[in-house]
Amino acid sequence: MSRVTTSRGANHMAVAALKDAGLAGFVALMLAVPLVGFRTIEVGSGLGLQTRFDWVAYCVIAVIAGRLILNFWPPHWRIRRRAKAPHVSNAQHRTTMKLVALGGIGFAVALPFLPFADRYVIDLAITILIYVMLGWGLNIVVGLAGLLDLGYVAFYAVGAYSFALGSRYWGLNFWEALPMAGALAAMLGVLLGFPVLRLRGDYLAIVTLGFGEMIRLLIINLQSFTGGPNGVSGIPRPSFFGFPFAREAEAGGPMPFHELFGLDYSTQHRFIFLYFIILALALITNAFTQRIRRMPIGRAWEALREDEIACKALGINPTNTKLTAFTIGAMFGGFAGAFFATRQGFISPESFNFLESAFILAIVVLGGMGSQIGIVIATILLVALPEVGREFAEFRMLLFGAAMIAIMVWRPYGLLSRRSPTIQLGSGA
Amino acid sequence: MEYFLQQTINGITLGAVYGLIAIGYTMVYGIVGMINFAHGEIYMIGAFIAVIAFTLLGMMGVTWVPAAVLIVLVTAMLFTAAYGWAVERIAYRPLRGSFRLAPLISAIGMSIFLQNYVQLLQGARVKSIQPIVTGAIPLIETGHFQVAVTYIQILIVTLTIALMISFSLLITRTRFGRAQRACEQDQTMAALLGIDVDRTISMTFMIGAILAAVAGVMVTLYYGVVDFFIGFQAGIKAFAAAVLGGIGSLPGAMLGGFLIGLVEAYWSAYFSIEYKDIATFSILILVLIFRPSGLLGRPDVEKV
Questions:
Q1: Which residue from B106, B115, B40 is spatially nearest to A397, judged by alpha carbons?
Q2: Which end of chain A has fewer CB atoms < 10 Å from its terminal CB, N or C?
Q3: Between B122, B236, B243, which is nearest A39 by CB?
Q4: How far is A406 from chain B (nearest CA, A)?
Q5: Mean pLDDT across the stretch B147-153?
Q6: Closest CA relative to residue A365, chosen from A319, A424, A417
Q7: Is residue B93 part of a domain?
Q8: Of B134, B162, B161, nearest in space to B150 by CA
Q9: How does residue B41 score in pLDDT terms, banded at 50, 70 and 90?
Q10: pTM of this prediction?
């Protein structure tokens, strides 16, 4: 008797699963027919169409098969969704993380002297570190204070342009411009943040997005000052405390770097030096964040992220507290921008569009908002993987989008899923 | 004066398009409380389907304009609705009950995904089609300047108004509309009273997508050029319209759309065309700061 009901139940399930797969296939067909099935091509003066119905068939078959596999997958094999951050004991977690961090820093310092570190590797490492720094800067805003900033790239742009224009109009060098870039970005952060930070989370996101676009449009349109869409070129390279990285000393100028240390001239010196600058900047950002998390202001950020109304009741001024996070995040964005300008030697508004903001946000989200090491891992994944798989380069942004959705659906707390306040009652921390 | 009148006509046309997209934002915000960041991409997909459908009809030899426009409208609405449904099912439904910003981040991911999906499949080049609805009615002639309403402008505005009326009736008079409003008020209670909340939300996304598809077809007819990036700008402007009118309010979305369209037209005409986007963003920011509930919206109460 019981056997009969089980088999009937199983039959029922199989029918339901088939129905479900059929429905999914139908939707896939609807999605694929117009955009996959037809491709517009230029024919003479007008448009023509190419058909690709074989692709449509593959899509539909893939969706049906995927859906069937998902339905008949044994339930205990499924990835469990983590809606809540898992609980790991704080002390144990911290020791592991400390070890990982120390190992990572050791590797980063040694990297330029390793045998495989040619110019390409160091260049890639510099790119990764720029994004790590931007990720850490944005993490203060998004991860710690819980403010979704979609216009972070505005501060990056201000930093880059303040060095580029500072050197063009006032002949500033990198070391003079660096504090100025940070200060200008921070000032802009205060100016933008003050009116908008009282808004609710999702409104804030859209307003910051609007600001980011406005800054970009201003740079494009103030052509006589910023060079407009053509950008600024000829941005000076940093020097080693006044000693340039050149083969020959300029007439009357200081001796070049390699003579100072009695080395043979190599173009690589400059890249290694740039690498150490960005490594130092990034580590400063990290040290700052780690420190400030333990200070009253950092704790107020985290408290605000968790419950704004409770914070108000406890006498924390939400607008001012958010403003500090926003400003500090902006400042680090400005530093990174100045470095970006000196490294590229050329900047244009195209480097500072919304996709760049979204990319930095993707790093923070993927890393698990609030986790410093998670951000490093996420950056390496997002920056280095497309470099390795060059042939997939055009799918890069497509995969980002998909990854952002997948992360939110399966692991909303990031790759290293952990977002607990730095201190908790009774944890003894 | 004539110039002003002409700009008003242009602005209202533009505003009708923004209004249609803005309804999608407002409805979704009303029912699930999230900004559907990918909505601009849905509009872009609608416009692409329109380009493909027009080209296909042209190749098949359908030359009678009203029939062609009607067929394209129906096709675009149908297929774009499927996209609206899929976006909700894949990127938003699994996130109900997750933390506050999760759906927004997922929506940004969806927006990036759809943009690149269309770019990869259809190419990054701008697609342009021959003008289909041509001709105009001259209103005032003064020597060198002529004020005219083109047929396509009339089509856009009348279609928008007709859709607005039928849509209001749908929300106020039908069973689905009641369910939709109930879900907006209290989803748990609505579910207890036998309303299929998931289905209602899916339907809301599909209706939003249908209206965005109409906007996409209209823009294709109006400008004749489409590329994979149009969704971003139009999306932000339509969102500004929804906020200006008061997010959650349907007449507000329409009103906001017309206002944003007019501001854009006047700004381009009298100040500078380069700064027209900055003008729209500034309106959005000013409204959010000084009157976050918009022109017709209700102020929302902060709850613990």
A1: B115
A2: N
A3: B122
A4: 8
A5: 87
A6: A417
A7: yes
A8: B134
A9: very high
A10: 0.85
| Rounded CA separation A44/B100 (Å) | 51
Q: Which two tokens stand for residue A91?
A: 């002390």
- Cα–Cα distance, A97 to A100 (Å, whole number): 5
Q: Look at chain B and report how many structural domains it folds into.
A: 1
Coil, strand or helix: which one is A232?
strand
Domain span holding position B107: 19-232
Note whether residue B265 is domain-resident.
no
Q: Could you give the CA distance from residue A178 to residue A239 in angstroms, rounded to a whole number?
A: 13
Query: How confident is the model at residue A429, as a pLDDT?
Result: 39
Which residues on chain B are in Cβ contact (under 8 Å) with A359? none
- pLDDT tens digits, residue range A182-224? 999 999 999 888 888 877 777 888 888 888 888 888 888 888 8
Query: How far is it, in rounded angstroms, from Cα A162 to Cα A184?
Result: 8
Whether residue B164 lies inside any domain: the answer is yes
Question: How far lies A3's CA from each of A7, A9, A10, A13, A156, in Å?
Answer: 6, 10, 10, 15, 67
Both structure tokens of A205: 């996101």
**Residue of higher predicted confidence among A14 and A420:** A14
Beta strands A46-51; A38-43: pairing state: antiparallel
Q: What are the pLDDT digits (tens) for B161-174?
A: 999 889 889 988 99
Give the integer Cα–Cα distance in Å for B87 and A405. 11
Residues of A with CB below 8 A from B111's CB?
401
Cβ count within 10 A of residue A279: 20
Amino acid, single-letter form, for residue B15 = G
Report which DSSP code applies to A9: H
**Of residues B100, B117, B281, nearest to A213 (C-beta):** B281
Verify whether the Cβ–Cβ distance A408 to B277 is below 8 Å. Answer: no
In this predicted complex, what is the ipTM? 0.84
Q: Which residues of A touch B127 (CB under 8 A)?
A: 40, 47
User: In sequence order, which residues have a C-beta less than 8 Å from that of residue B300 and are 6 or more positions away?
Assistant: B293
- Mean pLDDT for the stretch of residues B35-47: 92
Domains and CATH numbers, chain A: 7-77 (no CATH), 98-229+274-410 (1.10.3470)
Length of chain A: 429
The pLDDT tens digits of the residues spanning B120-130 come to 888 888 888 88
Q: Which residue of B has its CA nearest to A308?
A: B304
Q: What is the pLDDT of residues B68-80, one digit of tens each?
A: 889 999 999 999 9
Burial of residue B96 (CB within 10 Å: 0-12, 13-18, 19+) is middle
Burial category of A16 from C-beta neighbours within 10 Å (exposed 0-12, middle 13-18, buried 19 and up): exposed
